[in-house]
Amino acid sequence: MKKELFHVHQLRLEVTRRCNLTCLHCCLGEPQNQDIKDEVVDQVFNKVKFVDELVFGGGESSLAVDKLKYILKSIKENNVFIGGLQVTTNAVSNTKEFIEVIKDYEDYIVTLMDLKREDYVGSGNIINVNNNRVYNLEQKMWIDKDKKFPPIALAISEDKYHNESVDRMYGMENDKREENFRLLLEDFAVLDVSNYAKYEENVQVLINSGRAKDLTNVYKIEPVKEGLVLALEERDGFDVYKVAPLLTITCDGLVTNVGCNSYEAGDKMASGNILEEDFLNLLFKLNPALIIRKEEFNGKSDEISEKIMSIDGREMIRAARFNYSINPTNSIEVESEKIHRSF
Questions:
Q1: What pLDDT, in 10s, does the model give residues 64-106?
Q2: Phi-psi category of 149—alpha, beta or left, where left has phi over 0 and alpha has psi -120 to 50?
Q3: What is the pTM (predicted TM-score) of this model?
Q4: Predicted confidence band at 333 (pLDDT cuts at 50, 70, 90)?
Q5: Mode of pairing for the β-strands spanning 254-256 and 238-249
Q6: Residues 6+ apart with CB under 8 A from 301
Q7: Residue 174, number of CB atoms within 10 A of its CB
Q8: How far apart are CA 202 and CA 215, in angstroms?
Q9: Cβ atoms within 10 Å of 221's Cβ, excluding its own
């Protein structure tokens, strides 16, 4: 019987439920003293061999640098393809160590994608995803984006709710946060994701859960459970299940296709635990909106990928991962911009 492997378009790992702020608009609820379990990470990457975009979710990822290091270690040991990383930080603490581990992820992804750093938008720039333009901090002007989307999609939470929480909890230490912003921008391009809250303060779009439930005079939407697509194809002699658009794994190993929601509500909507149940059964229990069988997949791979891929640079990611060999026993070491595979 063939081993079942998985290709997830956007894999959201709940790295931690800890946080160093208490923002009034937070949809997650109160922070919890909980980080992702090592055995959850290993079980995920024993199954998932392709990830178009890895997302670090939950609380404040910079508080769990040791877990970020362990996740990368497991990714390398399990020979997992990662097309990009999305991570958001409030930049309050732990920035230098956090930067170093995110740079390690960048090295890994750049090597897999066969990129050079001059190929993509680099440090000192702010990327506005909505209009596909870049603000250059040195030139102090918007410029047309003529390079590829960076492998690290780093976002800094700087809307009025985060700023109010920093001022309330840390007072003058807010100056330290400004220094952390500068350090982050020295190494990465930063996504501009705060315009809905910072520049158009009369038009708030918030998830109606957690602390945000108590806010008034703002526009709120209910948490969305994504319509899961499950497609089966044969690749390198393995049955590979393509999962899109989003899959979330919590600190304890619960599996769900809900993005932003309160911890309590998200846990209740999970299909089960990856440490206790078969992964494929957990996906079927999420009631996929569309299931594409192997015999239906032949000749449609590009069409299906086009429908489920939405991030900039998707052609580049698709080309790289289709040339990537699956071998669950491989280990990968990134060294001097080369991949060394041991069989």
A1: 999 999 999 999 999 999 999 999 898 888 788 999 999 999 9
A2: beta
A3: 0.84
A4: very low
A5: antiparallel
A6: 233
A7: 13
A8: 13
A9: 10
